[in-house]
Design goal:
heterodimer; A: 334 residues; alpha+beta; 5-stranded antiparallel beta sheet; 28% strand; disordered N terminus; B: 316 residues; 11 helices; elongated
Chain lengths: 334, 316
Amino acid sequence: VTAAAGSKGKSGKGGRSGTATDRLQRLLALVPYVVSREVVGLADTAEAFGISEAELVDDLNMLWCVELRSPDPYCPIDLSYEGGEIVVSEAESMDRPLRLGTDEASALLVGLRMLAELPGPQDRSALRRTIAKLEAAAGEAAAASAHVSVHMDGRAPADVQAQVAEGIRQRKRLHLSYYVPGRDEATERDVDPMRLLVVEGRAYLEAWCLRAEAVRLFRLDRVIGLAMLDVPAEVPEEARGVDVDSGQLFRPSPQDMMVELELAQAGHWVAEYYPCEEVADLGEGRTRVVLRTPDTEWVRRLALRLGEDGRVTSPPELARAVEQDAAAALALYA
Amino acid sequence: MSRQKTERLLSVVVCLLSSQRYLTASQIRDAVPGYPDSFDAFKRMFERDKDELRELGIPLETGTNNPDEETGYRISRQAYELPEIVLEPDEAAVLGLAARVWRRAELAGAAAGGLLKLRAAGIDAEETTQPGIEPRLQTGEAAFGPLWEAVRDARPVSFGYVAAGRTTPQTRNLEPWGVVNRHGRWYVAGFDRDRGEERVFRLSRIEGAVTFTGPPGSVVVPEGTDVHKTVQAWDATSPSIRTAELRIRSGTGVGLRRRATSDEPAGQDGWDLVRAPFSDAGWYADYIASFGADVVVIEPVDLREAVIRRLKGALA
């Protein structure tokens, strides 16, 4: 048996109707959804299930039309949606939702435990209580979630994260001392915080940088110092947050320079670590990668750190600069 | 998508939920509209329906009401129903945020489906963001889906793996014990059948398809296994911490100074003497080399030599 790589497994979609079983899941949830709220509006319910009102009405009709023929014919479900309000008056043993499946319980529990790992703004007590209640309600389905664990990069100081969260909550301007490793510089700047992002195990502050006059991401583990200013944050209306779901936080700009490196096997991590425009296998364990960058200084630093495991091959002036850097450094050991 | 099929499956569920007794296949056919008249065609369709209902997690039990009867089916309400769960508003809020963590990742559909059931239980939780925080788990690695299924269902797998320092994949046979996300990367830990010991694999280095090599339930996770500890140990750098003595040009080496235990001017020549702890000499030498002519290692000797080797490598 081969599981197709990247298969979606048997995770029910819940929302939009796709297959017959997707719709069945929705129908089974719809009755208890209404029953537990006694009376609900058509529009609100359609929104909650992510479907149109017409689709919802079709679902309700299908439920209402269920007819069992034997031993005596009867209709087990009675409901109405007159005047835009749904009322279920007869729901025969369907008034509770189906138990959580293993995937469902695991997805929610792993998500909750990940939130509990984050220092800062999370309501820890609420997380603990929710995890306990969900584990109890999921029963056996919760067990598999113990086989998935998520651990964040612990290097971002908890106090920085808490301060950032406080700045976002109070909508206050922040002063940042921020380390830029590519230039080995501690920079000072004022920013208006937007969001705290946690992506690929790292925490970032997304903020409007008054110096760059643009939205910038700041890795919290590179924040050297932080102060909340007594100035309200004024994020310009045109400021757009990054799309955390695009799979690429940092988009190279078309003005960036193209740099080509040849990597030995031990330097192959570069291709995994940085978004590369091109990765070519040169055989015998060697790889050629092309990176886009606005700043050549970090490439010089990268090349020094790679030593014989990687070499800048283009542009040639950058390759020469690396050699000069290395020669100057070696002279200090002579 | 078939409307008749949805109607039929729905009727089967309602029919079995409302009956306390086991119903035989024939009784179900009599009660539920939509099955074909031919008994063989009915049997085939009913078999498929049973599979689909079970895949949705509907606990379809088989048994008899008394020993001399034909085998029948029932759905016990106790096994079917989500137990009572009530969440306070702050709990519902974190639940909505937790469901969002998987957005567009492998278990996004499962998270949404689970949230829907909880909302159907009367909980007002929405998959909306709390102002100002967006946590995400990515599952860009293609192997995540099949490996999660293997771990969930306790099935052994085999896959092609490009180990560090290699370029071609080798087939590995693994009894997976768990998947771990550490610092944003996914790993699978388990018992490597070929090596005869516990091993850790990085999902991004798995090439091609993951193949199940045994039935569900055939992997036994040893008592007391903590896959996170296993991955952490595999990932960990040497724990012994030493101190490096560095000369750093004044106003430079900011990154190195951030970890310093002492940092003072060394005479009047524009250099400072910095002491800083390190554990992995190879990694630290690479890092120091990246500062070029702004840093000189005084001690220890092995670190100093490693930096010189790096720099010579960059020069050649």
